[in-house]
């Protein structure tokens, strides 16, 4: 099963961890794994190619069956537009990953954790 762990702090996403394999089909034919992978890679590409975050800044782990993304947080005034665009990317990712999890609930699980103290 694929686990997508979304970590929040003060209402903002701070980390996204995607681990495991769906087991829906054999490797190379697994549409569930492919869907989750494409969305996760698209998020990373949007953050690096469109929003110009350094890959070293956001990607903590990137390997088969385990991807960890650190979401940059900034309150600086000159970062407001980029943070707004980042929020849009993250919302798009969440909507689509939730659709996959709803459709293939035996193969994808989303865990949301609030670390606000």
Query: Strand order, biggest sheet?
Result: 3-4-2-1-5
Summarize the amount of helix as a percent range: 40-55%
Number of DSSP helices?
3
Number of individual domains: 1
Organism: Candidatus Pseudoramibacter fermentans
GO molecular function, one term: cysteine-type peptidase activity
GO biological process, one term: ribosome biogenesis
Keywords: Hydrolase, Protease, Ribosome biogenesis, Thiol protease
Would you write up a description of this structure?
The protein is of the alpha+beta class. It has a single domain, classed as Alpha-Beta Plaits (2-Layer Sandwich). The chain has 3 helices and 5 strands; from the N terminus they run E-E-H-H-E-E-H-E. A hairpin with a 2-residue loop joins strand 3 and strand 4. The chain is globular. The termini are far apart. The mean pLDDT is 94.
SSE blueprint:
Elements: E1 2-9, E2 12-19, H1 31-50, H2 55-58, E3 59-63, E4 66-70, H3 80-103, E5 108-114
Parallel strand pairs: 1-5
Antiparallel strand pairs: 1-2, 2-4, 3-4
Give keywords.
28% strand, globular, 117 residues, Alpha-Beta Plaits, five-stranded mixed sheet, 5 strands, alpha+beta
What is this entry, summarized?
This protein is an alpha+beta fold and 117 residues long. The protein contains 3 helices and 5 strands; from the N terminus they run E-E-H-H-E-E-H-E.
